[in-house]
Amino acid sequence: MSVPSTAIEIAAAVRSGELSAVEVLEVHLARIDEREEEINAFNLVLADKARSTAKAIDARVAAGEDPGVLAGVPLALKDNLCTHGIPTTCSSRILEGWRPPYDATVVQRVAVAGAVSIGKTNLDEFAMGSSTENSAFGPTRNPRDPERVPGGSSGGSAAAVAAGFAPLSLGSDTGGSIRQPAALCGVVGVKPTYGMVSRYGLIAFASSLDQIGPFSTTVADSALLLEAIAGHDARDSTSIDQPAPSLLESLGEGVSGLRIGLVTELMGEGIAPDVAARVRQAAAALEAAGATITEVSVPAASYGLSAYYLIAPAEASSNLARYDGVRYGMRVDAPTTAEMNAATRTAGFGDEVKRRIMLGTYALSAGYYDAYYGKALKVRTLIMRDFETAYTNVDLLLAPTSPTTAFKFGDKTADPLSMYLNDICTIPSNLAGHPAMSLPFGGGADGMPIGVQLLAPALAEATMFRAAAVLEAAAPALDEVWS
Amino acid sequence: MNLTHEPIEGEHFVIQSETTGDQWEIVVGLEVHCELATATKLFCGCPNMFGDEPNTNVCPVCLGLPGSLPVLNRNVVELAMRLGRALRCSVEPSVFARKNYFYPDMPKDYQVSQFDQPINIDGWLDLPDGTRVGIERAHIEEDTGKNSHSGGSGRIHGADYSLVDYNRAGVPLVEIVGRPHIRHPEQAKTYIDELRAILLATGASDAKMEEGSLRVDANVSVRHVGDPELGTRCEVKNLNSLRSLGRAIEYEARRQVDLLETGERIKQETRHWDEGAGRTRDGRSKEEAEDYRYFQEPDLVPLVPSAEWIAAIDAAMPKLPAARRVALSAASGVSPTDPAVVIGVQRNLDALALAAIAAGGDGRRVLTHVEHNLAIDGAETLDASAFAQLVGLEIAGQLTATQAKTVLTEMVSSGRTPDVIAAELGFEAMDVNELEAVIDAIIAECPEEWADFCSGDEKKRGKLQGFFTGKVMKVTKGQADGKSVAEILGRRSA
Predict the structure, then answer these.
(1) Whole-angstrom Cα distance, residue B288 to residue B282?
(2) From A91, A135, A153, A317, active-site residue
(3) Nearest CA in chain B to A321
(4) What residues of A are in contact with residue B301 (Cβ under 8 Å)?
(5) Mutation for B interface: A208, A209, A235, A377, most B CBs within 10 A
(6) Is A130 a catalytic residue?
(7) Is A435 within the bounds of a domain?
(8) Facing residue for B69 by CB, picked from A90, A237, A324
(9) Could you give the number of structural domains in chain A?
(10) Catalytic residue, candidates A78, A120, A191, A412
(11) Which residues of A334-359 are buried (b: 16+ CB within 10 A; e: fewer)?
């Protein structure tokens, strides 16, 4: 049989012995050979390691064992997830050469489920960016149009799935870093509830916002992967103490009777007309499937971007302090320890990382804390309260994922603020700790994919996935030009 | 320095200026860091051990490797709360915070500590003399690693290279912040003694100052006697012994008085005690005030101990030193502030003393031995009834005080009973007639001395008392009872 495109089909075929994991892998490695030089989705392709993993899976099937729900499915890992003995760089010079002595919890879990890790994907350095242009190892290109960015920060993971290098990948989402590249590359991307997936082994950007989640080409595949990686982990104190949710079993239940709100604040100024139009079209599709659509206001969402750009850099300034040249990674020698620290960090970090470290250091400084970091925390509380109010009247919210379709390289690098505005629709969910996902819903005026975003209250992933399945079934073709 | 001091107003230590006649009072608040005696570290499963090979008790978490996350050790919370309750603190819902600064011995370049919401607040510690010292807070934090500098001067500047041992990184600490209620260097030492006794009694820490598991910083200021306002304080660090603590406080107070008397102002700063030079020195010069950019640690959740947990800790609270002194005093008839009682409890020998008294030992004699003769390893293993028996032999005059001490030491090391040891060493009560004969012989040998002894000159008599007692002891090989010797000498000279 020929190799199918979805993880669910591949795993079923491998588990039943219809396909070997090795065959599946070789098809994907061939695609990587063909296009990776152009796309640059990976910092590292683990072809040999993947081959031995695939062989071991085939041996288990031959021995009558079940290798798991992801049996033989190639999977790409964002290069901020620690992999035992394998370089993990965060696309930063400062970590060049460092090999973690342990696997991230999610890396262990996908391995236990039978997935075949095929490589470490490119990202904006330390996950700071919306275009993957901030990688120290060069940008990733959008497989739908190599002149355009794939989004970021998980641009490599989104591009790997969009290019067919792997049916599944893992990314991390701090302010939209899964959903925005998913939208720009025309794939599905999910940010789960904060605490649903263990962060152990995810190299921190902003600890109170970071969450790991899946990329896939279908809604069901993301549900499959999320089920495999979710669930309590004693090594992460912020991990929610409950088992992984069941998503696949209720995926086909439809949206009849669900109340879904269009977020007023995320449909107005700054949102491209084609994007807004596709979101309204998605709302109509949900309504046609039996949902009630209303407009809902989440007033504090307008302040999300400002609050985020104080909270995330503040945490980052502390999380990234450890890259000081003393213990691992790059070291630039200098006469004193303090000078060595400074020289190492000056040489090892890129401009955007430095910008955010400075922002965060400033926001936490004595005399400024109350005006900046303290106030941002209050806004965060307000956003949570406004969401809570909104969810008394609706079950889910609908919004754009990104204000525009994929832009061209260099378009926004000169003006950091215009780059930051990319995350205006995704940031509120991170601040609230709520789940949200992006799925493709036709193309824009430029023929590039548009993503629509579903937002849900904490732990309401199952409902969110039901609505996503309905939208997926109703979605126009990815390249259908909006007119 | 042309300053003198004399203790007036009871416990207060007053520095009196010879030039102005002003009287200055010392005000001290102590900050104590102590390592909790848990099996594992604060946020990971690495052993909490002192003295192992460098960098052997480490893992991704305590090395702060990228991606690692802390998980709070429940036993740390248990011990911290036990200590807090022993210090009469209120246990509060608390959060952890990051204290951010760069230092190579700190793997994450921030220290996880508690800042504005500590676990224990508002307690107190009563000193044996009844003085109550307030406890502002006792919070949990992680220890750092240890730097060592090789070559050059052996200090960080000018060293050829530096090594870091992270075995201590992540070891749990409690920082106990005392209020500025201490007024005398000796009182500061007593406070530490008492705190150490509480740490040992609660099992919270082994509290060894010499191994660094108990570290003391002193906030010292001075003010005119009677002035209600606190002066500007300096924090004195690097105090490695109680002796250093007392000396450093006194030195620092005098330094501050000198400055104030010459019209200068005290700069609030950290100063380091130099034991060799006997003085404090400025710390690292800092161009600007330290800004630790504290914020809530996002990798940990708030710590909210249940009321049941706190109640269970209270219910299981061991008897604390103050109560133990009262019990020992009641049993022995010796005052609870008597040094023998205080030291007995501090050395954890009160249970032994109580048992020996219960077995019939004389309270005063038992405590005298505890205070003076049992500062030895294994003292706590002494059999209480054998101890009582020893004291009985002493009271009956069958052993002299000196002999009793010798026998006691042998009892601790061998575990044998006092009668057996005394017989083996040939210690037996001398017959009074025999002793009188020995003394008469010595008087006959030394007629001039004896004449002086009997002359009625108290000074000469006092001096010669020792002379004759010494001779008797020499002849009897120490077996004579000092009291009997004095009695016979007195009778003969009358």
Answers:
(1) 15
(2) A153
(3) B109
(4) 237-238
(5) A235
(6) no
(7) no
(8) A237
(9) 1
(10) A78
(11) eeebeebbbbbbeebbbebbeebbeb
Please tell me which residue of chain B has the smallest CA distance to A88: B66
If you count residue pairs, one on A and one on B, with CB atoms under 8 Å apart, how many are there?
A: 99
**Residue A365 counted as domain residue:** no
Task: Give catalytic status of residue A177 as yes or no.
Answer: yes
Reading phi first (left if > 0) and then psi (alpha if -120 to 50, else beta), residue A85 is in left
Which among A191, A198, A201 is positioned nearest to A237, based on CA atoms?
A198
The CATH number of the domain where A71 resides is what? Answer: 3.90.1300.10
The pTM for the full model equals 0.89
A82/B100 Cβ within 8 A: no
Sign of CA dihedral B10, B12, B17, B21: negative
Each residue's pLDDT tens digit in chain A (483 positions)? Answer: 899 999 999 999 999 999 999 999 999 999 999 999 999 999 999 999 999 999 999 999 999 999 999 999 999 999 999 999 999 999 999 998 899 999 999 999 999 999 999 999 999 999 999 999 999 999 999 999 999 999 999 999 999 999 999 999 999 999 999 999 999 999 999 999 999 999 999 999 999 999 999 999 999 999 999 999 999 999 999 999 999 999 999 999 999 999 999 999 999 888 999 999 999 999 999 999 999 999 999 998 889 999 999 999 999 999 999 999 999 999 999 998 899 999 999 999 999 999 999 999 999 999 999 999 999 999 999 999 999 999 999 999 999 999 999 999 999 988 888 889 999 999 999 999 999 999 999 999 999 999 999 999 999 999 999 999 999 999 999 999 998
Could you say which of A206, A318, A327 has the minimum Cβ distance to residue B100?
A318
A205 Cβ under 8 Å from any chain B Cβ: no
Tell me the DSSP string of B240-252. -SHHHHHHHHHHH
Question: Which two structure tokens, joined as six digits, stand for B86?
Answer: 């022993």
Q: What is the DSSP letter of B24?
A: E
Strand-pair category, A292-296 with A211-216? unpaired
Q: Kindly provide the b/e burial profile for residues A70-102, where b requires at least 16 CB atoms within 10 angstroms of the residue's own CB.
A: bbbbbbbbbbbbbbeebebbbbbbbbeebebeb
A-chain residues within 8 Å CB-CB of B299? 204, 207, 237-238
A237 — contact with chain B (CB < 8 Å)? yes
Report if residue A206 sits inside a domain. yes
- Choosing among B68, B288, B296, which should be mutated to test the A contact, i.e. which has the most A CBs within 10 A? B68
Strands A292-296 and A259-263: parallel
Going by C-alpha positions, the residue among B373, B320, B376 that lies closest to residue B345 is B320
Apex A239 CA angle, A238 and A245, nearest 5? 150
Nearest residue on chain A to B55, judged by CA atoms? A327
Contact state of A373 with B295 under an 8 Å Cβ cutoff: yes
- CB contacts of B68 in chain A (<8 Å) are 102, 200-201
Q: Is residue A402 part of a domain?
A: no
A55 is catalytic: no
Going edge to edge, which strands form the sheet with B97-100?
B110-113, B97-100, B295-296
Q: What is the ipTM of this complex?
A: 0.96
| Cβ separation A337–B104 shorter than 8 A | yes
Does A153 sit behind a cis peptide bond, omega within 30 degrees of 0 on the bond before it?
yes
Retrieve residue B106's tokens. Answer: 């700190």
Q: Which structural domain range is residue A70 located in? A: 7-250
Interface of chain B toward chain A, CB-CB under 8 angstroms: 60, 63-72, 98, 100, 102, 104, 107-110, 156-157, 162, 164, 289, 291, 293-295, 298-301
CB A436 within 8 A of CB A465: no
| Cβ pair A81:B67 closer than 8 A | yes
CB B52 within 8 A of CB B65: no
> Taking CB atoms and an 8 Å limit, are B67 and A202 in contact across chains?
yes
CA distance B323 to A279: 73
